[in-house]
Specification:
The protein is an alpha/beta fold. It is built from nine helices and six strands; from the N terminus they run ααβααβαβαβααββα. Strand 3, helix 6 (about 140-150) and strand 4 form a beta-alpha-beta unit. The N and C termini lie far apart (about 55 Å). It binds farnesyl diphosphate. Farnesyl diphosphate binds next to helix 3, helix 4, strand 2 and helix 5.
Amino acid sequence: MKDSGKQTAVLSEFINVYFEDGTTMANKMTNLPKFDIIPKHVGIIMDGNGRWAKLRGLPRYAGHKIGANTFKKIVRYCNNIGIKYLTVYAFSTENWKRPKEEVDGILKLLDTYLDDAENYKADNVRTRFIGDVDSLGEVFKQKIKKTEEMSENFTGLTLNIAFNYGGRNEIIQAIKKIADSHKIGELSLDDINESLVSDCLYTKGQPDVDLIIRPSGEFRLSNFMLWQSAYAEYIFMDILWPDFSEKHLNKALEEFAHRNRRFGGA
Ligand code: FPP
């Protein structure tokens, strides 16, 4: 039977209905895995594209291109298994130091992704960008705005794409907002607390990240979600991002479900 976009969208909304135990209709209808505890917010540092390409004698861009496919596959999977928030680190404020050809390649992947955004409507994923996207220029700014607006009422996974993102930068802009409000008498020093700072970050209104996954065998945070990761669990995996699959995510989720999170308590 020929499927219309509308039918797919309706089906997608249906499979993303959440139950109290955190599973989705998709979990219940299919053999998607069910975990005892599922993190509300997962962060992924998509690392290892360059090494993946080098191992094959290819330009680094080739690794990013395959990495972008992995990104799309993992977003869809997270949505289907009932994760509510996913933040992926696509480009940091420090990545401008890379060769121009590589930077242009990543920007091209972003551009293609934004141009294709209409095609992902049926996934029901709410897409947001975090980072200094205004500095990417007017064309990107408008395309990003259009993509965010198009999906703002979608009810599935909320996807944050961290692009031109730096955790320190994010905290600095929060400090500036707070200082400005204080200066004009809108807020007193006593009003400054954790919840106010959280509300001044790009992730305003979202839960802190519970689990950060970094493939590629590196053990660093690299300026990713510095404030939001205060009580995150970290899982470092010895796999390069282009080779990362649903199986690796399942393994990380399985491990997360067995971690004893105390949030500073006994
Ligand atoms: C880090 O690997 C990866 C990046 C800096 C870019 C990640 C970008 C993508 C996966 C594409 C994003 C796509 C969209 C649609 C926004 P690395 O280059 O540092 O790898 P290496 O450590 O092996 O050199």
